[in-house]
Specification:
ten-stranded mixed sheet; Serine_prot/Carboxylest_S33; signal; Rossmann fold; two-stranded antiparallel sheet; alpha/beta; globular
Length: 491
């Protein structure tokens, strides 16, 4: 089961800076009035552009209201990019390409589409991308984290959780305070409103939209707000319609329980090798007892630490690692140590709901704000700890292993955009066993928004654009044909 893969750098907290697009100061690149665009080659106006040989992608700044309820108030700059169609057609609908997030640069995405199975769409569509407000080259608040404090290796689960909670709580309070007006307006719905300002600036009545991972949240919000302005929309690796983080963490843990159940069955079949018995219930009890024991008294061997979370992580490995996991499990049950080093502790790791972090890194405040401003789950310590303990009680061997501390003591709130069942063509694709955006989230979005759902039979996040069945995506954007059923995934 994939665990978080993004670690915020532990460097001192610095003053906030509200940046104007991070485009090089140039009269030709400066933002014009709201709704107007001046396109220039990105390589000439964007600082540290990823590909110095990219002469096709154009960039511009779009000026939009910070607060759409106050359209004449404070304005911010949104960085946008486009790759012109190779064979422009009259009145062709531009395709907006959203590559995930939160907190990540996305304006470099149009050129990237040429390296995927979506490339044929660039023949007759302008490919357009946008850095969501608060990230990338758009206006944002820069606020880095303090170093993560030391946690004793013998700390129990509550002490470890409290250390992670307090770390995020300090960050949230300090960084939001730098510009609370700005942080309050970082929501998927406002990113969707920015996208509609881009549509207006492009002078088109409708857009096509292909979004993956967190960009699906922006896409779903856009369709709920502007259904008649969607020509066609495909969302791959879908975010849930409601951000209840305890439920979302439980959905990730459910994948771990599935892997654990399979591992237990495998161990029972291989009793001759590992001598854990053939009674599956007895094996589960031994694992649960070991987790409880190491929660009470973690074993420390030099820099290596074996605690209850280590046990849960070990037994939720993918089938390809079961043999190694079994050897380590038996060794620890007998009082020994695992073959592989065990490293625990440190700052909580952030998983981007999108592609690998591109140049520019991840803006952690935007990440937290996008996930927390509209969250429906509690943000206090007791709320989050009680929810984790409830999941642990329901599934003793693996419950409570995964948790998202990003909303710890989050000081702001905004009303989430109600999901609407629209009429515009909406196609979803979910990956059956992936752990970044679990398949269950696509099922919930399908029900809430009204859509077709293609099931991709793999555990790879956002893999559709590299699969043979990307042909279904091409067909959808050419004639609107939706599809259900299954699609072979990554082997």
């Amino acid at each position: 089961m994939p665990l978080p893969v993004m670690l915020r750098r532990g460097i001192p907290l610095v003053s906030v800076v509200l940046l104007s697009g991070l485009l090089l100061p140039s009269a030709s690149a400066a933002p014009k009035e709201a709704g107007e665009l001046t396109w220039r080659p990105c390589v000439s106006v964007a600082k540290d552009w990823l590909d110095p040989n990219d002469t096709r992608t154009e960039c511009a700044l779009l000026r939009v209201p910070l607060d759409y309820s106050k359209p004449q108030g404070r304005k911010i700059n949104i960085a946008v990019s486009r790759l012109k169609a190779e064979h422009a057609l009259p009145k062709a609908t531009p395709l907006v390409y959203g590559t995930g997030g939160p907190g990540l640069v996305k304006v470099s995405a149009p050129a990237g589409i040429l390296k995927t199975g979506l490339r044929p769409l660039a023949a007759d569509h302008d490919i357009v991308s946008m850095d969501d407000r608060g990230s990338g080259y758009s206006d944002k608040v820069v606020c880095e984290s303090e170093p993560f404090g030391d946690v004793p290796p013998t700390a129990g689960p509550k002490e470890r959780f409290k250390a992670n909670f307090d770390y995020e709580s300090r960050y949230n309070k300090q960084c939001v305070a730098k510009d609370p007006e700005f942080a309050r307006q970082l929501t998927p719905a406002n990113a969707a409103r920015d996208l509609d300002m881009l549509r207006q600036a492009l002078g088109v009545p409708q857009i096509d939209y292909y979004g993956v991972s967190f960009s699906t949240a922006v896409g779903l919000a856009y369709r709920s707000l502007f259904d008649d302005r969607v020509h066609r929309m495909w969302l791959d690796s879908v975010m849930p319609p409601v951000f209840d983080h305890s439920t979302m963490d439980g959905d990730v843990e459910a994948l771990g329980k599935r892997d654990f159940d399979g591992f237990v069955q495998w161990l029972a079949r291989h009793d001759a090798e590992f001598h854990l018995g053939t009674d599956k219930a007895a094996i589960v009890r031994r694992v649960t007892d070991l987790r409880d024991e190491l929660d009470r008294s973690p074993r420390v061997d030099g820099d290596d630490v074996m605690n209850g979370d280590w046990v849960s992580g070990l037994v939720t490995n993918a089938p390809s690692a079961w043999a190694t996991a079994a050897i380590d499990l038996v060794s620890v049950l007998e009082g020994g140590t695992p073959a592989a080093p065990v490293k625990t502790g440190g700052a909580p790791k952030r998983r981007p709901f999108g592609f690998e972090s591109p140049h520019g890194g991840l803006n952690a405040l935007q990440y937290n704000a996008m996930l927390c401003n509209t969250a429906t789950s509690g943000t206090g310590f007791s709320d989050m700890w009680d929810a984790l303990r409830a999941r642990r009680a329901a599934t003793p061997a693996v419950g409570g292993l995964y948790y998202s501390p990003w909303c710890a003591d989050w000081p702001l709130s905004a009303q989430p955009t109600p999901m609407k069942r629209g009429h515009s063509p909406l196609q979803l694709s979910g990956h059956l066993t992936e752990g970044i955006t679990p398949y269950e989230w696509a099922r919930r979005a399908e029900e809430a928004a009204g859509a077709s759902l293609l099931t991709v039979e793999d555990d790879v996040h956002s893999s559709l654009s590299g699969l043979p069945c990307v042909s279904k995506v091409l067909t959808f954007f050419r004639d609107g044909t939706t599809t259900n059923g299954t699609c072979p995934g990554v082997i």
